[in-house]
Amino acid sequence: MKILEERIIKDGVVRAGNVLKVDCFLNHQMDISLFQEMAAEWKKRFEGQKITKILTIEASGIAIACIAATAFDNVPVVFAKKTESLNIDGEIYSSKVTSFTKKRVYDVFVSKKYLKPDDHILIIDDFLAVGSALNGLIDIVQQSGATVEGLGIAIEKGFQGGGDSLREKGYHLESLAIVDKLDAETGEIGFRK
Length: 193
Ligand code: 5GP
Description:
Layout: H1 2-11, E1 13-15, E2 19-21, H2 23-27, H3 32-45, E3 53-57, H4 60-70, E4 77-83, E5 92-98, E6 105-111, E7 120-128, H5 132-144, E8 147-157, H6 162-168, E9 173-182, E10 189-191
Helix pairs in contact: 3-4
Bound molecules: guanosine-5'-monophosphate.
Residues 19-22, 27, 60, 100-101, 125-134, 157, 162 line the site of guanosine-5'-monophosphate.
């Protein structure tokens, strides 16, 4: 998606450790017009697919998922909550996620009330790196018996492999920008053609 790539080039900052900071429009200050264009683009790319709910993960996925929902008939948005210690009480689906940026393992969970076997889920998140967050969300959807219809990502860091491994498994993954090169020394950002 050209405008997203242009925005990343204009405002993205490359940090050591393969981290791309986009606080100016996505992770701290949020550009809602851009989010609306992203929502319309996902709508096009998932055209014809039945979506009854959007699932994301706190915190940064929530705003993007809410704007995305407006392009999908305002379906409900559910976000997986993160916690460092989980009391399994039988009322939740849970999975483990390793945070790429914070290098910590979290339990993530969703109440059983909000995912049902007849749901068709579009999973939305801001970034895809090695795929731990998405795989945790997919695991939760599978526990519920619902169907994963698609995966919508704003920025995939293609060189970290998470996206290609999900494509190989047959998931319909639509990343709006795929970064294939991040150079912390020169600040260079390259995209997959
Ligand atoms: P994964 O689980 O695929 O390794 O990483 C995805 C998660 O880590 C996303 O939910 C996102 O919050 C965070 N993340 C991974 N890489 C980056 C990055 O380069 N920049 C930012 N801002 N977040 C990232």
